[in-house]
Amino acid sequence: MFKVVMFVKEEDEWDLIIPSVLFAYRTMKQDTTQATLFKLVYGRTATLPVKIEVKTYPTEPITEENFQRTLLRKTYDLIETLENT
Predict the structure, then answer these.
(1) Higher pLDDT, 1 or 75
(2) Strand, coil or helix: what is 59?
(3) Which residues, in sequence order, are CB contacts of 72 under 8 Å at separation 6+?
(4) Is 34 left (phi over 0), alpha (psi -120 to 50) or beta?
(5) What is the C-alpha to C-alpha distance for residues 76 and 34, in angstroms, rounded to an integer?
(6) d(CA 65, CA 22)
(7) Is 58 in contact with 67 (CB distance < 8 Å)?
């Protein structure tokens, strides 16, 4: 059984949680098909936001001199990670 518990500040804000609820429902294994709806539609498993690994701490000290180079490298690394998922 699928249950959603969510608290919203105002009664008229319920529509703000619809995308999150739909994503959760579509990535849950269904009893009838033994598969997720996402897999049935797209032919692959969904990449959950928590599965994308982004290093938050720099591996080398960031100085003013190498800030732009480091930022670009990390951006390209993130793009490559997203493309491979």
Answers:
(1) 75
(2) coil
(3) none
(4) left
(5) 37
(6) 45
(7) no
